Amino acid sequence: MPIIVNLDVMMAKRKIGLMELSEKIGITPANLSILKNNKAKAIRFSTLEDICKVLDCQPADILEYKKDI
């Protein structure tokens, strides 16, 4: 899939764990883990907005488009 989720990178930069982030944005740790491990098929804009608020980042810091080679 050409969309890469760099949530784990941003979480490491902000020194926040999966449980803490899931509590702050109001989704289950299991669903956040699916997103973090690049297994998600979609993300709601409201969830992306909440993640960006908590991590103080932009959507482009989390989502990256990689062209197929």
Task: Report a brief summary of the structure.
With 69 residues, the chain is mainly alpha-helical.
Structure description:
The chain is mainly α. Helix content is 57%, strand content 9%. The protein has five helices and two strands; from the N terminus they run E-H-H-H-H-H-E. The chain has helices at 7-14, 18-25, 29-36, 45-55, 59-62; strands at residues 3-5, 63-65. The protein has a two-stranded antiparallel sheet. The longest helix has 11 residues, at 45-55. The protein is globular and about 40 Å long. The N and C termini lie close together (12 Å). The mean pLDDT is 94.
Order of helices and strands: EHHHHHE
Total number of helices: 5
Terminal residue distance = 12 Å
Q: Note the main sheet.
A: 2 strands, antiparallel
Oligomer: single chain
Rounded radius of gyration (Å): 11 Å
**Low-pLDDT segments:** none
- Helicity, as a percent range: 55-70%
Number of strands: 2
Average pLDDT confidence is 94
Structural class call reads mainly alpha
Tell me the β content. 5-15%
Arrangement of strands in the largest sheet: 1-2
Which descriptor suits the 3D outline?
globular
Secondary structure: elements and pairs:
Layout lengths: L2 E3 L1 H8 L3 H8 L3 H8 L8 H11 L3 H4 E3 L4
Antiparallel strand pairs: 1-2
Provide tags for this entry.
69 residues; globular; 9% strand; mainly alpha; two-stranded antiparallel sheet; single chain; 57% helix
